[in-house]
Queue: 3 jobs
Job 1
Amino acid sequence: MTSPKSAPTARGPLVAWHRRAGGRIETVEGWEICVSHPVQPDAPRSGGNLLLDWSHRSVTELGGPRVSELVSGLVGADVAVRRMAAARSGIVCRLTPARAIVFGDPGSGVLGDPAAVDVTGGWSTIVLAGPDAINVLSLLSSADLRTRAMPVAAVRQGPVAGINTLLCHFAGHWELHACPDSIVSLWEAVLDEGQAYGLQVAGAERLGEVVTVGGGGEEGTT
Amino acid sequence: MSLMIPCPHCERRPAGEFHFGGPVRERPEPDAATAEWISYTYDQPNRRAVQWEWWFHRGACRQWFLVRRDTRTNRVLESALPGEVTTGPLESEAGDE
Amino acid sequence: MSSQEGPCTFTFDGRSITARPGQTIAGALHQDGVHVVSRSFKYHRPRGLFCATGRCPNCLCTVDGYPNVRTCVTPASQGMAVRSQNAWPGLKWDVLSIFDRLHRFMPVGFYYRVMHKPRFLWPVFEAIVRRIAGLGRVDRQSGGSRRYDRQTLHSDVVVIGGGWAGMHAAIAASRGGRDVTLVDDRENLGGHVLFDPGARVDRETEFESTVQAVLDDPRIRVLHRATAFGCYEDRLVAVQTGDRMIRLRAGQVVVATGGWEQPLVFPGNDRPGVMLAGGVQKMLWQDGCLFPGDAVVVTDNQNGYRVAHSLAACGTRVVAIVDHNATPAGDPGDLPVWTGQTIHSVRGHRHVTSAVIGPLEGASSATESISCRWVVQAVGFTTASGLLAQAGCRLVYDESRDLFRADQLADGFRAAGSVNGTFDIDACAREGRLAGEVAAAGEGGGTVDLIPAETSPPVRRPPDGKKAFVCLCEDVTDKDLFDAVAEGFANIETLKRYSTVCMGPCQGKMCQSSSIAACARANGVTISETGRTTARPPEQPVPLGVLAGRAPHRHLIRRSALHDWHVEAGAVFLDSGAWKRPESYGDPAAEYQVVREGVGLIDVSTLGKLELRGRDVAEFLEFVYPNRFAKLKVGRVRYGVVCDEAGIILDDGTIARLEEDRWFLTTTTGNADGVDSWFRWWLATRPGWDIRLTNVSGATAAMNLAGPRSRQVLAAVCDGDLSTEAVPYLAASQLTVAGVPATVLRIGFVGELGYEIHVPSQLAEHVWCELMAAGAASGIRPFGIEAQRRLRLDKQHLLAGQDTDALSNPFDAGLPWIVKLDKPDFVGRSALQRAEGREPGQQLVGFRLEGDRVPPEPSLVLVDGRLEGRVTSARYSPVAGATVGLAWVPAELASNGQQITIQLDGQLVNAVVQREPFYDPEGARLKS
Ligand code: FES
Ligand SMILES: [Zn+2]
């Protein structure tokens, strides 16, 4: 009956990859994260193509007939299927009428609801930003990425590099959410196709400049 | 497979993202005749007809839904959520040839 | 035209060749006087440039180790190494050209007909045939480093072909507000008109402004040097460009692929120096090549006159325009015309030396020989309608145009220009515009709208069955086809397969019309009645690497949340589907021992994990499992087997009730997705059920802490009472383990006191490391799945999928207690009820085999020499002091103490059936 020797530290599935690649690892708010990589790529607005890991985030799955009600509570209005919207702190993605995923802290009210399941370790997030992001994606997925089919705030589930991925289109970047067991494969596939476009990895300290939509921007940069 | 299947949640996607679940059939009552159960369990209907079928979007939303397809032309006519189609969705349509 | 600044040099079979900027390899060779570029496939006849537009087999070379490159459309670049193909030892002195003299002994099907006897020599012959008849050779070194990729693009309107009709279609579709992708296989837009100054007369500015309009239009994306090679369902157009395959998903497709110029069939028609008019035009105007010496032009239309004028303008002496028509089809100017005549043969071996000209019909006595170096043919086109045919458009033979063309279009398709047999340049533009407008409106399909053309049926000398090449790829002659028809291969499809005509690299582009004509003539029927062969992808040859894309280099690997720990601990990994799982950490025997005697820890995160919430979950579980769950108490877990309607075992796992309406289920690693989908299907059939299923397989990691000392290790990191009273066997507890909220299931797959601990994945490594640290004093070790398999076999715990198969039901698999037939309804009840009453077939039983020899899976179980069963699992068991295992055996042998015979290393060994566990049969250790 003793207490654990150390406070629990959460670790995303890409941390070992970052460490091997020479990234600087720090513990921030209970998560081990890669803060920076040795090479600093250009910012997307200066033409750089960046790949970041944003797996250090709470994730909640909402399911069942009350999803509309819960989403409205979080966002202020219901969110259509295949769309996302910013909540107080985080992003709500609506996948089906009876299913939504909240990236970021949904608040204790929602977490206590029987329609909500904490699936924090169940989703890892890759952020892809830069002028060639859409070209890299077209090499990995059969998705129709034209603005008409995939405007900003659109959400699409489906295979990317053969891995079931939730693809979210933000004004300045794309987010790829997938199961942590496959995220290393997805990360390496994106990097591989990105080679031709000079895609480079960056640490979480760059999240703030890349992620500009929603309330989640500050989280990764602390 | 380049055929497109319309998922009610994800819109049109290549058929390779899906798993085909066979034509919609009525499960016999628990006390139905043995012959009826045997036919339901082991006979796979393979008709030339317009029929409602089960499809599972395994590579994306992982939801089951219904597709009405003409097996003669492989043309997909519509899709629906279970319970959404009110006029006998679980009845296959006849209309061979 | 080219990104290159100055001239470049490359080598051809070791010889240095200089190319002008932008010149093709073949162009540079031609300019350098190299006229024999390859040897033919079967007879090794010398072959030179023929179509010069990338349609025939003649200029295929190996470039930088990459075989079958069409050098007439491939720009030369500095330092390229070009090698000829099908020549051994070299192009000039190809020893195998002896086959050419032997041709009468080498009819079609020669290799197959002759060399398969005697049969035992076939492998030897085959090796030689492959060497002498193969098409190029794959250079493994350079091939492996190529990077193939695959891209998906979507477009409202896809126009295939950037010629006159295609460009107008693209512009019209863009004006209609659509985004357009124009696929063109050449360096520059314009199609054949680009190289035919005569065709552009009076339209020079219009031509240039049209090309510019396409290039400047922001809604038109042009894919240059891109070949559309397939049309698949729902308008998926497969395009190859370089090492990339583009899957182009189109709303509407306009096919403007034009036509392929067709050769005449006459003896010597394959000799270097015999060429097609379009190719000559392209060589003259794009490659800047000259055709020094005398030329004879054979024609039945205006094209012939235009090429004659082009040649004359570039310094060739045109000694005759041989026109099939009684009156000249064009304006010869001051060039000599021979009307009503055609070519009968050419003379010359390594190059043409003269042409024999004579009347279309009748005796060959009236022929005359004209000495010349070049014979240029301009006798019309066949439509490039393969993509339309693939798409399901109906092709018919159009008598008046003398060609096959689409007449009924598939949904969403339009055809414009020469692909319809429309050759007039203004008519092509009008058809293109019309097709573009229809496509923009989204109304493709229906009947083809033709702009009527004033065509006169061509005048041809009919094929007469002499030895003249119909098919340049496969060296099939006119005579071969007549012979094959006489042998009974009269149908065009069987004729193709037997003679291999149209089956070479050109895929019928050069030979389809001639072979159909020959087939029709040999059968004495019309072309319409003969029909054509089925069009299949690829329309153009495609490297296999392009089709495979990146797939061979990249396959999905799934890793558990503890993967990196295992790597550091030196785990030996086993591939289990896409998963990497530790098979052991180097010493499975020691890992086994530590679990039996102390404590071990195994990563079982790959298990499928489902959380079900809602009022109707209990009812649902009662329905999808054959055993009972309605009365399972909160805080308890139960083993369950999932069966299908036939009563066959799909999977097994545990079902825990965490709260009244909250349940937690596990599945096996391999069936995680399958069970998820199976349950979702049953839920979909009953939309009224109040059940929410969340797949938490990725969100949750799991580890099994097992062994007599596991309780004290867990207690060290867990605040709470772990006594058997508080946490009994089959308890499902919510505990805090190492500061982390965990679901702890007290189950014992390996047959010892044990805890299956489920925690959020992001905290898995923390919990694992805390347990390892807490167990250090007790000698804890991680164990892999090899130790786990041995441990569970001691207990005769089956592995679904390993010990069961698609015929196994719970009765036969030794789990009769799990089936509750008194439940009114559940999945598989009807079948299991029938199975219960039936005479049992094979049964899954434990067996004990004295000694330490282990029969590999699946060894055979024999009864009186007959195969009557099989071993599904076997390992040496230290606690049993013998080899133990599970096997399917006949029902009469399935009781305790029965002897069974197993085939092991070719010998028969006897084992004894044992129906209770080999270790701790009462389960005292599990429940301790
Ligand atoms: S000459 Fe190059 S393909 Fe015909
Ligand atoms: Zn879907």
Job 2
Amino acid sequence: MLVSYKWLQEYIDLEGVSAEELAEKITKSGIEVEGVEKLNEGLKGVVVGHVLECEKHPNAEKLNKTLVDLGNGEQVQIICGAPNVGKGQKVAVATVGAVLPGNFKIKKAKLRGEESHGMICSLQELGIEGKLAPKEYAEGIYNFTPDTEIGQDALEALNRDDEILELGLTPNRADAMSMLGVAYEVGAILGKDIKLPNPQPETSTELASDYINVTVEAKEDNPLYVAKVIKNVKVGPSPVWLQTRLMAAGIRPHNNVVDITNFILLEYGQPLHAFDYDKLGSKEILVRRAKDGEVIETLDDVKRTLTPDHLVITNGTEPVALAGVMGGANSEVGSDTTTVLLESAYFTGGVIRKASKDHGLRSEASSRYEKGVDPARVRPAAERAAELMIELAGGEVLGGEAEADALDVKPAVVSTTLGKINKVLGTDLEMNQVEDIFARLKFETAVDNDTITVTVPTRRGDITIEEDLIEEVGRLYGYDNLPTTLPVGESTPGHLSDYQKKRRVVRRYMEGAGLYQAVTYSLTSAEKATQYALDKREPVQLAMPMSEDRSLLRLSIVPQLLEVLKYNIARQTESFAAYETGAVFLKNSNEDLPEEREHLAAAITGLWESHPWQGEKKPVDFFVLKGIVEGLFAKLGLESQLDFAKAELDGLHPGRTAEILLNGNVIGFIGQVHPTQQKSLDLKETYVFELSLKALLEAETAPLQYTAIPRFPSISRDIALVVEKATAAGDLETIITEAGGSLLKEVNVFDLYEGEKMEEGKKSLAFSLKYFDPEKTLTDEDIAKAHNKVLAALEEKAGAVLRG
Amino acid sequence: MQDRLKELQAEALEKVATAADLKELNDVRVSYLGKKGPITEVLKGMGKLSAEERPKMGALANEVRDAISGQIEVKQKELEEAAVQKQLASEQIDVTLPGRPVRTGSHHPLTSIIEEIEDLFIGMGYTVEEGPEVEKDYYNFEALNLPKGHPARDMQDSFYITEETLMRTHTSPVQARTMEKHQGKGPVRIICPGKVYRRDNDDATHSHQFMQIEGLVVDENVRMSDLKGTLEVFAKKMFGEDREIRLRPSFFPFTEPSVEMDISCKICGGSGCSVCKGTGWIEILGAGMVHPNVLEMAGYDSKKYTGFAFGMGPERIAMLKYGVDDIRHFYTNDVRFLKQFSVEE
Ligand SMILES: [Zn+2]
């Protein structure tokens, strides 16, 4: 809502309160003022002039040479390029020395050999948007009405000596979508009275009801419909003051009749519609839901197909308006209109919102109906419009009105107590302070001991419960004046859950290991949604996605991380490592919500270690990432529950991929991205892992318990084994561990040899075994006993022989 | 014999003094003090001496040995020191060469903001609650006083999955779920961070996916002044002790009264600049007293219980705090962006 500071003063005395100060006060106690615009910012030296003579420029086809009376006894020659300039016009003249927007200074000039002492201005040149200028002046200079006095400040005549407050209205404050509503609000803030218009149009002896009969079929959508008839109107331009009021509020002037309806919409917040009575083709107005497939051509020349969801105004048979949204082209007021049927109606929000949404049509009228208009203003608004029709269009208002009234709206009566108010706000108010606030709002109150009962005018339809009253008290008392306290009462220990704590540990660990945390989108494409999914389920799909790329919920994070890698590598980053924790979404067939499982995923590419000036460059490989996973499990006390099993998975290198097992259950995978996939992403060797963070963080771990630092030395035995190439080190390790008994405390691979010294199909793996007894120093015999068992088991189970 | 010993001593000391390295010195030790050395040889002739002279000569021999070995020791230290010095002299490095790079990753800036806020409220007795990102219409809207057809549903056009499920448009459903779990009893003090989704085209200021963090306190005597005090603590810790806050009326379907909180603009100090659009204030969050309908629907007696709630966007806070100009940076994960947040603050 755009509020003119100058116009507002017609309803309330703003003496001593500047527009800026007013904006600040309104913002603090009710409605956010998003901006204050000075309309004449950067403008000066423009006067109303009278074009005395106008002829073609002798040397230029498109220019005119004019003589303009500036009203101060001065007559000047001005060269004007506007096609619509003509003798006798009253125009805005930027005189020599004037300044126009953009710091454009007007100087004496010579145009094609002819002197020009100023410039005749279009509205755009005076800072008014072209789409707001009346159509006939949109392409040329503006003409004041003939009665305009010359020599006066043209900016004042155009009401540009004004400031516009832009209100950012929340949906509950529909009451402030009118000048009267704003006046009430400002009155409450400043504690001042307001002057309301008191229309009393003179009426003729003829009755409106003889001209028109109103029937409402859809009473729920339209509880009140009032029609007035105005005869003998002379359609023409509105006076300048009216045009400028509309333009300042962002509405383009059309003609006096239409402008009056828009003026009332702005003043009362009540949308009105003017029909050309003679074009209705009947003496009947019937309001009903549209028939399925019924068509109406609206004022914007668009043919719209309707459904029973939409409300129409008809002449008994044909629609003549899409109720509350836009009139029909068939009954439009034009220059030849002489009799006007003026509609002032109360439509309920739902049906208007539906029509406005279905047809993509949001008008000043529909936006007010959607949020709710004040039913008590339907009649006064019609009266006020009728009065202006007489004054500005020479019309003759017929007596009474044709109407259908099934309205049942009464002011809300809401009670609260002083105790409740003070309890909710944390204040120490007295009853008289509360009463004063409601008096400023012009609400009637009745006080009975601690209870205050408020009769809320229908213009404030947002106030229905006692909390609403408390808000009025709070905001007008001023939130600045509230005390500052902290919650009292039973204290609660603040903490993270174990899961949340561990998740932070995981993040810190991953970052310490050299990975950046990424945050990517949950919504993805059909292709990526299922790629690298641990759990191959059908993805969850949006009913109405905005694009193909964001139409389904991800089942894995890896595809998103690969995109991140691709993005970075394409931008001169040689190496990049990223991880993400986040939900993947698993569709449930029997429940309505999908299962959301938190995953941890990582992707690395490029060099892992490098030492620039020593020439060391170590690219990432499987074991870099595997080490990170192992370290993570160790950090969480889960290393003994971790296993890797060779696997072949879609999108991963078939020889360099493993499943990650926790306690024997697959909870993730690790591997090299399949070379084909790498190529399509323009990535070099890239490794990824993804696992269920939920499984990891919810796994049971033994409580942390101190074990004594050994008092006796441990003894190491190294063995080098020759085995088949396909034999997995992990399997040998398992055999060793199982056979070694309680004395064997540690087994570590320390060498792998697959070179030419080996027999075809064989390799050598060397292990270091550490024996230890917490009770005594081990003897050679103790160790030999255990160690021989290990060697025997290795030979028996894996055909492993000691390397000679 | 005595002369011979003296002679040997002088000879040995001469050699010790001129020994050029540890090996030469050791040769001296072996040749003079060893079992086959000249002193031993000399002492073999002791049998010819009288019983009186024998101990004297023995003592003299020991003196000579001690003198030689003492000198050797001194010399050895000298030589060792020299050897160390020599080695050190040969081991010079250029300390201005760069060190071996240590790989470091870092928190995403949104995580830093969220954790900072979490920790702040944990300190004030809050716990952190999370909930599903795909929500039931009931928890996302209806339980929050947004029945079907409510005009405010337009304010946050949403991604529906089925008629009854959608991508949550705010983290408020976590509040509704938590209150329901508490079965009408207090106190509830929670903070709810998480991802939310709205039907917006991604541009510099909009993202179809973004973060939100909300707080909720429900108890028997929660006052609006408590909300004001809590938000003031938050604003000062988050944005600096010198920040002022102001509450101004606003509207949210789930709170009544509803407010928005602004903080004084750090850049212009309140006089107005482009960041605060000339107002001197910057909008930070929305808040209010929990609407009685919301309390009642979650099973609370709204005559007895009151509550406050507040919600904010970590992106917006990060943008203000760090001067980030485009919300899409948070989701592009450009390393040149992420790297800048590896500093612990
Ligand atoms: Zn500023």
Job 3
Amino acid sequence: MSPETLQKKFLRGLTEQFPDILGKLQEHVPGQLIAVLPREELPKVTKYAVNQLGARFVITVATDQRDKTGDFGISYILAFDEEKQFLVLHSNLPADDPRIESVTPEVPAANWAEREAYDMVGIVPEGHPDPRRLVLPDDFPAGIHPLRKEYQYNTRFPSEPQNAPPRMPPPEGSTVVPIGPFYPTLEEPAYFRLFLDGERVVGSDYRGFYNHRAVEKLGDSELNYNQVPFVAQQICGICGQVHSCAYVEAVERACEIEVPMRAKYIRTILLELERIHSHLLWVGLAGHIIAFDTVLMQLWRIREPVMWLMERVTGNRKHYSSNLVGGVRFDITPEAADDIRRVLAKVEEEFKAVVDAVLIDTSLMARLKDVGILTEENARALGAVGPTARGSNVAIDCRVDHPYAAYDQLDVQKQVQDGCDCWARTLVRLYEVFESIRLVRKALDQMPGGPIMAKIDGPLPADRIALCSVEAARGESHHYVRTGEDNRPYRWRLRAPTYPNLQAVGCMIQGVNLADVPICIGSYDPCFSCTERVETLDVNTNEIRVYTREELQELSRRKTLG
Amino acid sequence: MFKAKLKEAVICFGAGRVTLKYPFEPSPVPPKFRGKIEFDARKCIACGGCANVCPPRCIVIEDMGEVAKITFNLDRCIQCARCYEVCPEKAIWPTDEFETATPDKSDLKSEMIVWMSTCQRCGRCFETDNAIDKFESKRWRGRGPGEANKHGIFPIKPPIDFSMPGSLVREPEEGQGQ
Ligand code: SF4
Ligand code: SF4
């Protein structure tokens, strides 16, 4: 462990309570501590770190490591954002009895993560308050955990419709209004059941993961190190660069690959340009959701030149395909740099005019202010990230807290608001656009010359673990990589920003009017497809049934498989 | 309120007409654009480099003895141009074409059958600067039964076997508990 880490406050707190832990901590990557603990101790340490030391719960990583050590592994990843530190608590669980005490009763942010660990690998979270099926399709056979190594990525399982998870019963006297399973707010699948008392939301239930694409399975069984970034960038139609960057950076950290500085700057510039067009898109969409379509039209008009710019600079308006392990594939030439500056100058001017108008537009405020309250306390407890957290006065931003690419040289200013409502989240994004424009300019000015790709001579070492968090427009995208022997990761785990933010929605829409639900859901910039990663289909609308579920399933499978 | 609306009106009127005439007039693409993949069977040496790196397995190479059959399922292509990057003969490249919509996926499928040969310049089969792209991955893309050919390429099953029965649970290998 490095001397700086030893000085850190959280470590003192941790070792006071658990003196043994000091001998178990390893630090292979700076800022990332790993401790292998007995399974009785892991939940205790997690709860203490989150509730007493202010750690943020990030995600769990369940690994089927039976081919190596004969057991299962479970890691709980925690972040101490102020101290720029990740802590991975790992436990090995016997193959015939993979149980661990659930931390969800005391750490609500772990709710989905523990359920997913059960669905995908079969790690039983004992004492979980809501152990319903989360990720797997309704008709998936019971007792099969597809991320275990005995199943191939294209294994087809029989349909067992009786396994559908029970729905949450609505509170006494309330009406159920379904939103979804398609088009809840955006053109994506997710199914909210709202429990209403008159116009007021008194509760909600969520079922999603209709579009899971099994990329983690592909990543650890089929693709090689340099194919994964391209699959990672397809996870999201907006933050493709974010996912591929987080993945390659995790591999580079694990394998100690020295990435040339110029490559890091190029990644940074593309990431910030991506944030700019994503925020412009979001502000437009927010206008659209509350039926103020002028905002949509104008913001998307202003955004389009950024997309064309990306096409000129990278060869594609989305999916830049720029990252490989060790660097980037193409340079930003001086002409391209001038092009970027020119486009940004225009965008800045036009966006400023819009912001000037929007900030005094009382009709917008009437729809956004004091709507969808997510208190600071709840935002922290549920592990919210990105503008959703920063709009609730939680000052976390991975660009500052866990720097990656060239952000440690750019002096990023966090944009934080304390309104805790949809308006505050809007303000955060509006100001972040200007900050991003400043960062791109600064990065272009500071970018050093030199190569853009590291030389990789031999096979990458196996069994190293590294994490990387990248701040996407919607929040922290977290990637975990454990390297493997076959020129591919042994385990690749990713957590998109919508995953924790979606869990905060129930809290956000509690007590709001039905008409405000879409903007509340929209206000954290949901991206359901990033959250969802195995191909499934479920059409369980209670009411109108033109097709039976089996017919529809068959139909759509035929369609997708061509 | 009124002031805000006035400002918004100015923005809207200031924008002018932004809708493009496309598709009634062509929409040119920038020089770096990565469009539909084109290939030249006369240049290809069937080294398999493109199939090795293609992330969505849009390129599948099958060893048929003296010749190799290369299948392009361009409906899967993600326009990354990795194939172009690694191809030693530049026998495959991205074009400007982006209008690939079709009611029939098979329009986007093509095959070429090429003689296998070594590179005339270096005498080797396939060389790349990046070590990761060189390594052979075990269990790489559904390797079928059979021996590798002299280039280390295994006979390959079609990318996804959709004809599989409803349930196909592989027996756990020895030493792997259920
Ligand atoms: S462009 Fe990419 S996806 Fe398309 S064929 Fe080439 S390597 Fe495959
Ligand atoms: S990389 Fe080029 S030469 Fe090799 S098989 Fe592909 S197209 Fe042919």
